[in-house]
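notes to self, project folder thing:

trying the whole complex as one job this time. last attempt i did each chain seperately and stitching them together was a nightmare. four parts in total, labels are on each line so i dont mix them up again. if this works i'll redo the older ones the same way
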Amino acid sequence: MTKEKIVLAYSGGLDTSVAIAWLKNKGYDVIACCIDVGEGKDLEAIKEKGKQVGAWKSVVIDAKHDFAEQFVLPALQAHAMYEQKYPLVSALSRPLIVQKLVAVAREYGATAIAHGCTGKGNDQVRFEAGIHALAPEMKIEDPIRDWHWSREEEIQYAKDNNIPVPITKASPYSIDENLWGRANECGILEDPWAAAPADAYDRTVAIEDAPDTPTTIEISFEEGVPTAIDGEKLPLDELIMKLDHLAGSHGIGRIDHVENRLVGIKSREIYECPAATVLLAAHKDLEDLTLERELAHFKPIVEQKMSEIIYNGLWYSPLMKSLVAFIDQAQAVVNGVVRVKLFKGNVICEGRKSPNSLYDKNLATYTSADEFDQEAATGFIKLWELPDKVYAQVQKKALATKQEQINNKGVTADAD
Amino acid sequence: MTKEKIVLAYSGGLDTSVAIAWLKNKGYDVIACCIDVGEGKDLEAIKEKGKQVGAWKSVVIDAKHDFAEQFVLPALQAHAMYEQKYPLVSALSRPLIVQKLVAVAREYGATAIAHGCTGKGNDQVRFEAGIHALAPEMKIEDPIRDWHWSREEEIQYAKDNNIPVPITKASPYSIDENLWGRANECGILEDPWAAAPADAYDRTVAIEDAPDTPTTIEISFEEGVPTAIDGEKLPLDELIMKLDHLAGSHGIGRIDHVENRLVGIKSREIYECPAATVLLAAHKDLEDLTLERELAHFKPIVEQKMSEIIYNGLWYSPLMKSLVAFIDQAQAVVNGVVRVKLFKGNVICEGRKSPNSLYDKNLATYTSADEFDQEAATGFIKLWELPDKVYAQVQKKALATKQEQINNKGVTADAD
Amino acid sequence: MTKEKIVLAYSGGLDTSVAIAWLKNKGYDVIACCIDVGEGKDLEAIKEKGKQVGAWKSVVIDAKHDFAEQFVLPALQAHAMYEQKYPLVSALSRPLIVQKLVAVAREYGATAIAHGCTGKGNDQVRFEAGIHALAPEMKIEDPIRDWHWSREEEIQYAKDNNIPVPITKASPYSIDENLWGRANECGILEDPWAAAPADAYDRTVAIEDAPDTPTTIEISFEEGVPTAIDGEKLPLDELIMKLDHLAGSHGIGRIDHVENRLVGIKSREIYECPAATVLLAAHKDLEDLTLERELAHFKPIVEQKMSEIIYNGLWYSPLMKSLVAFIDQAQAVVNGVVRVKLFKGNVICEGRKSPNSLYDKNLATYTSADEFDQEAATGFIKLWELPDKVYAQVQKKALATKQEQINNKGVTADAD
Amino acid sequence: MTKEKIVLAYSGGLDTSVAIAWLKNKGYDVIACCIDVGEGKDLEAIKEKGKQVGAWKSVVIDAKHDFAEQFVLPALQAHAMYEQKYPLVSALSRPLIVQKLVAVAREYGATAIAHGCTGKGNDQVRFEAGIHALAPEMKIEDPIRDWHWSREEEIQYAKDNNIPVPITKASPYSIDENLWGRANECGILEDPWAAAPADAYDRTVAIEDAPDTPTTIEISFEEGVPTAIDGEKLPLDELIMKLDHLAGSHGIGRIDHVENRLVGIKSREIYECPAATVLLAAHKDLEDLTLERELAHFKPIVEQKMSEIIYNGLWYSPLMKSLVAFIDQAQAVVNGVVRVKLFKGNVICEGRKSPNSLYDKNLATYTSADEFDQEAATGFIKLWELPDKVYAQVQKKALATKQEQINNKGVTADAD
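result (full assembly):
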């Protein structure tokens, strides 16, 4: 009898290697699937290891380009920041990974998908909600949430199943990263009063160690898409990675966040997002120049909802599609160049220009070139203030009437 | 016959000195009223000058304390940032000034109030809407908007009326400041592609000139009010001014913003808000630790509306009262200390603690102390993903049915 | 050894009577607690029955007044309508019941609370979230969700434990009601294409059977609280019940809603809310007259959030407190009288007046009494339209430039 | 020398006929342009009259179809209701009219456009903002706002310029209508306490006069577009007009609204919107069945903003485009049939079905067919309530600690 096939999101690490054995022992043919979203993985080595530790099939996918174009870009254009702080690093890669896992499952006729998330994080929700939004019929396995092992028990199981156990001491941290950033939790970071130690960071230098000379670059945008740095055109994934390296070297992008998880707890996270920090600032700066006021003032409402939706694992929801349609529509005019100074942890947008700039010097100036109709202001103010002026008049009169009634009552009472 | 009295918002500068003459010539007894909101004015000298240039009465008011307590504090607690960038420096002082002007007008039986705003800025709206919200019956004069003079004509009028004309060359900039920050526009700043030159700044050093050693401070909050720095209790206005100096010396708080004015144009502004930048970051950081999730996620909607309302001159509107009530209610638990590192333009909240901290290490930890019920997660995910899973099932089936209908039609068509 | 005490939300029906036996068998001393929120229960009979079927203690509470004042009123003032249709009947009574259950538990030193909700509705969430928000240490039992019995098994258990079983055939419907309305689901209602049959309704006549003559009443409000009908002052609970009867007799308040439950499914519900329908319409009508525009335009955002929060069982959340503070603050001016015509299912607010009315005939009129400054309009329009006018100019020019560039390229190309 | 051409929005009535003369006398060649948006105008007669009273050119346009498809439909799909009451009748036709006027202006090389709005309504803003958003260079004339005439003066001017003056007494009302409804203001309606008299209505019968037998119809929707009534396919404009007549005959669609005008005053308006009332209810009902929860809960935020934007004359703003993109995206699944009972002023959606229905009887049922996983609920509740439970625990502990500190201080004090 042929076995059921399962696709496992495989990282090459101990947990998911043990998961291969565990799923095999449960009766599955395991398709190990490793997806590179910009961590700089050695895909060939991981492919090999997947086979070695018992996968029926080992598949690797370089998804950096798709990740940048389809997932990072909408988030950038929506200035997606969960709780105004976190640029949604892991939350963005999950739906990309899910998309690839489902595609592999369909290619090989697999009936189940497995991931290696713990039972207290957001990622389990993102994986499972994502998978079922694309493939509602798919069975899901989560070995790590299921096996309830201590570290020691896991290592014993690994040995029993011929899974190589790394001899280096495990990092105190739990890390996830991709080209949009790096997330770090656990260990000393679990004390929100403690400053994150130096070894918690990897993609950014400390400000102390950043160069004493700034780097100034010009970032070009076409319809809301960053397309070039200093005039050099680059595919989005490459542009991000190049900028990430540069900004990280100036100590840019460190974020220290006590955040509300979807599963109901607060957790303290250290993020490093050098490229994201720069691009989010530059894109906003260009929108400040090119977006019409009413749109600029409503877009943050849409942005906040999109941030929550992404964080909460609902990338493939119909609401997300509508939110993206809103944002997309707004990007046509976001063309131009932002000059950004990277220096000692700071992203300084010091100049911006655009063929679609709504800044009109002749309207804004206080010089004699002024074309603004100052007479119009008096009319504007009269109607603008009218509701509150009437309100003030009415409440004043209402108060006086009430006082009069009280006084009159007093008089009547006296007369009795 | 007794003359009508008018209260003029008096700064001691040329414009409002000329305005005294202009209003006098129009038939008013002018009460010059100078209000200090933290610019460090020499109030006595201004009082004297007011009288000298012809005011019927010259009044000065130190309003720093009221400004901090009644206007800056609600804005801080609401993280008020117009267009996510500008902490509402001038927009906050206008209602305070209006409040004082109206009080003076009532004290002296004045029937009119005058301000010296131009006809293309937001401040004229803030003054007039504010005055009429407090005193709907009050007449308003705006000499500068009315007189339509060139610089030369103004100087001639000054000379004709014995108003001393400063001999120093006029600054190219138009500046407004108070203890919450400094706003600068005009001159070279009217070119949004040009970087703001060094002389555009006054309260912050350039990052290049900031010390190479960070300063780390602990800011204490009680019910959302910053009450102490490094344990030293200070009245809010003093705390802000002390912190402003300190943060400014580290190059913190420079903001470069192309913003949408209420009067319909975009303008480019350079702000310096050292204390505001630090306090807004620290207060948000403490809220991240102490606010419950649903409140934390809705508060930004309220914050954005409040920012707009303040910017647009509607401080004294009934909506403002309701927004403040919302924010107030949320502050009871915002107690604790945030440890902030000030360094090279960066505000780094590196630790925070609170008796009301909702961060629970035993729930968040990945160690054996874990008290989180990981079993609950599977149930949670099932119901969380249910709407989108059903959605996926239904659309899949609907598509299949539609396809079948098309196919069947094909068959029928063939059969014909 | 003394037993643990548990407070059970007791209705007097079969399910909760069996629950008494079940909890007793589990080792608890059961305190049966029946709370009247306006269903017109015979509290004494239920108290007696509670004891009869084995409760250690039987407690009854008439909570109609508290329910109206503390729970219905804030919802009315916030125009709370879940998904713009459902006035939150059951969702409002749950936190009141929870409050009473916790108070009884504390009075008797009980360590647990039990409710009788099924495992697929919203009420289980409302009970449990509510209890833990007031008493996080409290143990919770939900017998019905736990025992997994068929109807037959439940009846057998009842017989085995001497619980009287009603001989009348069970209703096909599942009903919950209180003074704010009546909710009905199940049976034929589970088919959303089927019209609700006559027997699904209880508090409203069919429009066909409603009188051919309207009833016109005047409802008075003081600071947003309905205080009198036709001048007769009534406590809020009595006013609601009186109005409910009257409006129901005119066929008012039937609602047919396919709604999204918190637990992830859609369900079809039939509500009858005669009084709620009238009061919500009248209160909104009076707010239209008395609320200033900006407040009137933001309040719905707050209202919608509050509706969701209440529906989702988070009455005792800190967000709810802030939302209520916002609404409260807005009610001071909601004074006056609304004249309402009740007729054939229609609630027609045909006249309204208020000492705080912001409607100013002399501003609104088109007669010669007009005091509105029509000149001001031209200035207003100029600034109002300015952002979009500049936008149009810029895009027109940008397009032309782009076209020109394309043409020039063409020329250059030709020249090559 | 050739004269400047101006396009005038021409209705055939006295005001705009006089305007032709006035504009001619001002030196323009006047192109009278009459646009039918469903008032049932005699276009040929108006065209003739335009020429008669002196237009250089007289143009008529039947725009009913365009109006329905391009303007009414997006508003319907967005459930656009200003202040939750007014379906934006006039506000919707203005941008359509503007679009046609600009097209005619471009066709004939006109440099100006004239409208006949008064200086205190919203329509002047909608015309002028709309014109400049499409044609920022266009000059605008508003004769009625400019000429400041009394009725008598206007009639004299008409006589002097050979404009025929109607002999019937002028209506006390000011009316605007199109296929989406009818708006009425002025006269007795200016007293918000007075009920609107019978003669204020035209398209609806009084409920008293509505038939005693209901009409039940089935309305079909395809991707959010109403396409058929009782299976009969109709173009949208015809469907609306047919339904309008039918619903009006049942007394449906009367609205009595004290609303906030953009120009800062409150005004009392009587609307009749029979078709709009029915279609808005039916479309919402079908969305309740087919929209996923998160989308259904955010869409009202978008809807409210769109309603304001339309009301405020910003149809052609970039924000509007983004809002429409959001709504559009959501309509793909809004397919199906709603069965609606029209009776005595009531619109009763009593049944609805859809191939995209998300209502799943097997999930919702309380019968044995139940497929809902009730076990999952306990896990869901645990995580759902967790933030508020932790909040309760923390505040309880914080309070206790504070109390203890106070007590200890007491002890210490005593000890001194």
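what i see at first glance: The radius of gyration of chain D is 28 Å.
need to look closer tmrw
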